[in-house]
UniProtKB/TrEMBL annotation:
Record domain Cytochrome c: where: 25-139
GO molecular function, one term: mycothiol-dependent formaldehyde dehydrogenase activity
InterPro entries cross-referenced by the UniProt entry: ADH-like_C, ADH-like_N, ADH_Zn_CS, Cyt_c-like_dom, ER, GroES-like_sf, MycoS_dep_FDH, NAD(P)-bd_dom_sf
Gene3D superfamilies per record: Medium-chain alcohol dehydrogenases, catalytic domain, NAD(P)-binding Rossmann-like Domain
E.C. number: 1.1.1.306
Cofactors that this protein relies on: Zn(2+)
Protein name stated in the entry: S-(Hydroxymethyl)mycothiol dehydrogenase
Species of the source: Kribbella aluminosa
Listed PANTHER family: ALCOHOL DEHYDROGENASE, ALCOHOL DEHYDROGENASE CLASS-3
One Pfam short name: ADH_N
Amino acid sequence: MAQTVRGVVAAGKGAPVSIEEITVPDPGPGEAVVKVQACGVCHTDLHYREGGINDEFPFLLGHEAAGIVEAVGDGVTDVQPGDFVVLNWRAVCGNCRACLRGRPWYCFNTHNAKQKMTLADGTELSPALGIGAFAEKTLVAAGQCTKVDPAAKPEVAGLLGCGVMAGLGAALNTGNVGRGDTVAVIGAGGVGTAAVVGARLAGAAKVIALDLDERKLGTAKELGATHTINSKGLDHDGVVAAVQELTGGFGADVVIDAVGRPETWKQAFYARDLAGTVVLVGVPTPEMRLDMPLLDFFGRGGSLKSSWYGDCLPTRDFPLLIDLHLQGRLPLDRFVSETIALEDVEDAFTKMHHGDVLRSVVVF
C-alpha cells in the first residue's frame, strides 16, 4: 500500500525549496523502499534547484543518504528488510559493455526505480540522481542499496553516497595515488578535502591543499594535508610556481582539480610533474571551454582523467571504507559540520554556498 511522507521539493528554477507530502508506492520488481535516517546536503542538490542539471521539475531533492530497507519487490535478493544501507546512484547493470569487460565502475546503463514518487495531486517527481532522499522514505532500485556495517552512524555512512566518495575515489581509484607520491588538491571543500584524506590513506608522502579560504585550508591540514597554499591573489603562474616550490621544482605526481573551472584545470595541468596525472573531479558547467596549445599535451605526457563518482564500485568500496572508519583509520565523522532538520535544507544551501560547512546533514 502506498505511503505518504514529507519531502523537500524544488518546484521551479531558483525557487526556494518547500516541504511537501510525497506519495511513495510499494516497491515493484527490482525495487526497494528505504526509511531514510540521514541525508547530506550536497552541491548537486543545489544544481538541481538552480536548473543546472536539467529542467525536469519538480525535483525531490537529496541523494547522499543512509537508512534501513523497509520493503523489497519481487526478484530482489541482495538486500532484505532490516538491512542498513548506503544509497548510491551507480546501480550497475551487469550487462553493458563496461560491465562485461570487468569495469563495472564505468557502467553505461545504471538503473533507477521504474515507478515514480508523486506529489499528493499525482504530479510525478524527478528524484535527484534517481534517489530523492530528502524524504522520510524513498523508492529506489534495489541495486542502489549497498549494505554496510550498521555500527556506523547514518549521518556519517551516508556521506559515501556522493561527495566524500567522489573525493576519496579521485585519489584512490582514478588518480591511483601510490606510496611516496606527491599530490596537490585544488579546492578544499568537501570533495577536495576528501581527496586529501584519500591521498594520505594511499600513502602519499606530501599532500598540498590549495584554496582561497583559510578556514578550508585549516580543515584540510587537520585532515592530512602536509602543506597548504592560499591562492588568493595568485595568478596562474603563481599557483604553478607555489606547487613546484613544494615539490623540488618538478610539480606534483598527481594533481586533483576539485573545483572544475578552466583556470583551475590549467593550473592542475601545469602544476604536475612531467608524465604526471591530472584528475578532474569538480563538475564544470556546459558553457566552459579550454584553449591550450596542443603541443603542451604532447610534450608533457602523462594522464588526463575525469573522475565519475570517484570511479567507485559501491559494493566493493562502501563496506571497505566503512570498515576503515570503524577502525579509526578514516575520519568520516569530521566531514559532518552540523546535523539539521528537514526544514533547514534551504538555510543549509546558503551555508554551503558561502563555504561555512563541509557538510550539513539532515537527520530524521
